[in-house]
Amino acid sequence: MPGWRLQRFPEKVRHRLSSKGRSKAVQSNGCEIRFVTDSDRVRLTLSAWDEGGSVLIFKGDYFHSKADVKGGRMQTIELEDPERFLGVKPEILSSGSFSPNVWRVYFDRFNAVFHALEAFGHDVRPPRPGEMPDLNMLVYGSSITQGAGAMHHYTGYTQRAARRLSLDVVNLALSGSCYCEPELADHIAEKKDWDLIFLEIGVNMRGRFPIDVIRARSAYLLDRILEKHPAKPVFLTTIYPNRATFAADEQEPFTVEEKKTNDWLRQYARDKNHAHLHLLKGSRILTEFTGLASDLIHPSDDGHILMGERLAGFLAPAVSRLREERRQAREGR
Q1: Which residues pair with 137 in a beta bridge?
Q2: In this structure, how many other beta carbons lie within 10 angstroms of the beta carbon of residue 86?
Q3: Which tens digits make up the pLDDT trace of 133-187?
Q4: Chain-centre distance for alpha carbon 28
Q5: What are 172-183's pLDDT values in tens digits?
Q6: DSSP of 96-112, one letter per residue?
Q7: N or C: fewer beta carbons within 10 Å in the chain?
Q8: Nearest to 119 by CA among 155, 164, 66, 81
């Protein structure tokens, strides 16, 4: 079929990942189609390259509707302007991160394809900068950061933290395949579309790679980011509590390797002693073990909510500083 696949990574990066990483890299989770039109009715035609998944639709910050996209066939979703918006004071309606004029079509974890947008002759344009959050956060990590365990990617903890702080999110997490490949590290370091970055990079590598490989890969990723973006906040977390953290047998392999990985992340932060590198303790983000689902590795919806609120608190000072710096720059100070 024709259409445009919503990809999170360019092909040259996807094809240098692990076999599993390549399949996760084509998932469109966190991708959005955003547009503004004065038409009160639009038709959006989508499909899925794989088995399909759900799409959440928002008008600005306000949830509008949900649609399920099936694999292998095109389907058209009809959207109507919320009529009750007209009866509310504009300043109240516009009090969120996004302008209420912006349609947002938000994709879960499947490979989405865009085909067409019909506005019946009305103009359609992209949102302007003032109609979206003013700061972008890039996140990279495991399935936890990709939103696994939550009922929908939109309720994942990084998204919740971002909404709390009025941030936009570029989510490059790779479920079960966060291996910090050099090609991926170079790609992240070269990207310029973020203001702060959050990294959750330990849990997929522990027990799969020797500690010297983990050291080399994670150090290369962090070194490249700090080299290319020396003044941007970089947040790094140790592994979140999970079954291996509290294994009855303390010599269980994953338990031993998890400790080595966390020790290395702490050592890197100490040795680097960089003003804008912030190491967070995973157990201070996921503070309740009952926030996990029954697999004892992925957070439940409740766990994602807890983690998002906690993470937002740790990010808030840096976010405030970035906004203050921008304000002073605008005023010419």
Answers
A1: 169, 196
A2: 9
A3: 999 999 999 999 999 999 999 999 999 999 999 999 999 999 999 999 999 999 9
A4: 11
A5: 999 999 999 999
A6: SSS-TT-EEEEE-SS-E
A7: C
A8: 81
